[in-house]
Amino acid sequence: MLVLLTFCTFVSQAASATDPMPPHQVMQNLDRNACSLVICGPAEKGLPGRDGREGIQGPKGDMGAQGIPGPRGIVGPPGKTGPTGLPGEKGSQGVQGEKGDLGNMGKSSITAMRGTPMTSAPSGTKGDIGPQGEKGATGDKGPMGAIGAQGPKGTTGNPGPKGDQGSVGEKGDKGEVGGRGLQGPTGMPGPMGRTGSSGLKGDKGSIGEKGMKGDSGLSESNLMKNQVSALQGQLAVLQATLAKYQKVAAFPSGRIVGNRAFVTSGYEGNFDDLRQRCLQAGGQLASPRNAAENAAIQQIVILHNKPVFLGINDIQTEGRFKYLNGETIAYSNWQQGEPNNEKGRENCVEIFVNGRWNDRSCGEKRLIVCEF
Ligand code: NPJ
Ligand code: CA
Fold it and tell me: How buried is residue 263: exposed, middle or buried, by Cβ count under 10 Å (0-12/13-18/19+)?
C-alpha cells in the first residue's frame, strides 16, 4: 500500500465534507489553501485473466500546482496626463523698467518777478518777455512701465492621479510538476499466452475402415493370409482391452461369467426401483440362467451379506416365473419349500447367502445386482 500524507493547516473553501473533490480540484486546493491530505489506497484486484496485455495508459495525471508568479510585466504605457497643478507661487519682482519718456513741461511754479512798481508812473509799456523761468519742479510720476519679463518657473505641482493598469505581463514559468495522478483503471485482459508444449502422445486410434482393394499381383490365398494376419493383430489388441475391462468390472465386488458381468453399486431398493436402475445403466437385474451365473451372484450376496432380488417374477401369472424379457425361466435354485407365495403376496424372487431362491414380496428392499 502506498500512503502519501501532506500535513498542513486545512482551510476549506468550496469542498463540502460529503462530496469528494475531483483530483484537479484537490490540487487546486492544495495550492490555494496550502493544505491537503492525499491518500492513495491499493487498486482493487480484478479476477486473474490470462497473462494480460499491457494495460492501456492511465488517464493524464492531475494538473500540477500553479507555478510561481512570472517575472514582472513590461511597464505599461504612460497614464493619462494628470489635472493641472495648482498655480505656482508668485514670482519674484521683475527688473525695474526703463525710464519713461519725458513728461510734459509742468506749469511755472513762481511768477516771474514783478518789476519795480513805478509809482504813479504811467503805465509802462508792456515789458519784454521775462527770462526763462527756472527749472520746474519734478514732474508727476510717469505712466506705468511696460510689462516686466516673465517670472521664474513656479514650483512643481502635486502628482497627477494614478495611471491606468499596465498590460498583462508575460506568462510565468511552468509550474512544478503536480503530484502523481490516481492509478488508471485496470487494463484489458492480456492476449492469450503462448502455445503450451505439446502433450503426451494420445491413445492409439480405433481401427480404420477397410482399405481399397490392392492392385492385383498377390494370389488369392496370399491375400487371405495377409488379411488373417492383420485380423489376428487386431484381435490381440481387443483381447487385451477386454481383459482390462473385465478386471475393472470385477473390482471390488463384480463377477464375470463368460461374457456376462454381474455388478452391484451397493444400492438397496424395492423390485421396481432396482429394475429401472439396471435398465438405466444399460443392463438388467441379474437373471441367472445356469449354476455358474447363480454362483457368481451368490458370491456378491456373500460379500455384502445381503439377499438380492433377481430379474425373475411371476407377476403376470401366479406360479409361472419368467425373466424380465417374458421368457419362462430355464434354470432355478429354489430353497426348500419355495416358492410358496406366502400370504398370496410373493411375486418376486430373492437369493439367499446360500445361493437358494425364495419368492418374496416385491415391495421389500434388496441389494441391487445388475448384469451386463
Ligand atoms: C419365511 C418363509 C418364506 C417367506 C418369508 C417371508 O422365510 O419361509 O417363504 O417368503 O418367510 O418373510 C429363514 C427362514 C425362512 C424365512 C426366511 C426369511 O430362511 O428359515 O422360513 O429366513 O428370510 C438363509 C437365511 C434365511 C433362510 C434361509 C437361508 N441364508 O442366509 O442362506
Ligand atoms: Ca416364499
Answer: buried
In a domain, 78, yes or no: no
Q: Is 15's C-beta closer than 6 angstroms to any atom of ligand 1?
A: no
Question: Phi and psi for 231 in degrees, rounded to 5?
Answer: -65, -35
Instruction: Per residue of the chain (372 residues), give pLDDT as tens.
Output: 333 333 333 333 333 333 433 334 333 333 333 333 333 334 445 455 455 444 455 455 455 455 454 444 454 454 454 454 454 444 454 444 444 444 344 343 333 343 343 333 344 445 455 455 455 455 465 456 466 566 566 566 575 566 566 566 566 566 465 455 455 455 465 456 566 567 677 677 777 787 786 666 789 999 999 999 999 999 999 999 999 999 999 999 999 999 999 999 999 999 999 999 999 999 999 999 999 999 999 999 999 999 999 999 999 999 999 999 999 999 999 999 999 999 999 999 999 999 999 999 999 999 999 999
338 CA from centroid of ligand 1 (Å): 9
Could you tell me if the CB of 352 is within 6 A of ligand 1?
yes
Residue nearest to atom 21 of ligand 1 (CA): 337
CATH assignment at residue 304:
3.10.100.10
Number of domains in the chain: 2
Residue 246 Cα to ligand 2 middle (Å)? 35
Q: Which of 40, 73, 106 is the last residue of a domain?
A: 73
> 19: domain range?
1-50+58-73
User: What is the three-class DSSP state of 360?
Assistant: strand
C-alpha cell at 80: 493619462
364 CA to middle of ligand 1, Å? 13
**276 C-alpha to ligand 2 centroid (Å):** 23
Distance CA 20, CA 184 (A): 18
